[in-house]
Design a protein that fits this description.
Number of helices: 5
Strand content: 35-45%
Number of domains: 1
Largest sheet: 6 strands, mixed
Number of strands: 8
């Protein structure tokens, strides 16, 4: 089982601490519904930035592969996850003030004495994934099923049901 890391986010940032490791994709429950398979792991690096523009920050770097399910063909494919996020730490009462900020490159999160690093990494991955993941155009392979291999017309089954229920010619 993966050992969860909890940090005091303000202390971590003020002292410029660093944390790195590998986390199995299977340890991220909110991500499971989007994955074709839960195999693999993600490497992460979290670094505290004491003061950037007068505010403490966390820099989160994530690198790895997720095996997503293509929304066109329903087959799995490897999707590279490579991101660097800058998270400005703020008191909960200050978050509304930061949301008006014009800097789109920096997100704000609530400072927390017991910040769950795994949840933060999972959240960053979820935010980076496409809404409807798909293979590149032309790369999808058709899904072969018993029905798609049949010579029977797909509506023949419905025709048979109509005749059973006495709806034929009505």
């Amino acid at each position: 089982m993966f050992a969860r890391h909890f940090i005091d986010s303000l202390d971590f940032a003020h002292h410029g601490r660093e944390l790195r490791g590998l986390v199995p994709l299977a340890e991220m429950p909110r991500l499971q519904g989007l994955l074709a398979t839960p195999e693999g792991e993600i490497s992460y690096f979290v670094r505290g930035l004491p003061e950037k523009d007068g505010k403490p920050m966390l820099e989160v770097t994530v690198d790895g592969l997720c095996h997503l399910c293509c929304q066109r063909c329903l087959n799995g494919f490897s999707y590279p996850v490579k991101l660097v996020s800058h998270l400005q730490l703020a008191q909960a009462s200050e978050l509304d003030e930061f949301s008006i900020d014009e800097n789109d490159e920096v997100d704000s999160i609530a400072a927390n004495k017991r910040l769950d690093v795994l949840n933060m990494i999972e959240e960053e991955i979820l935010l980076s994934l496409p809404f409807a993941p798909k293979h590149p155009l032309g790369a999808c392979q058709p899904v072969v099923t018993e029905l798609s291999q049949s010579d029977t017309h797909p509506f023949a089954v419905l025709e048979g049901l109509k005749s059973l229920s006495g709806l034929k010619n009505k």
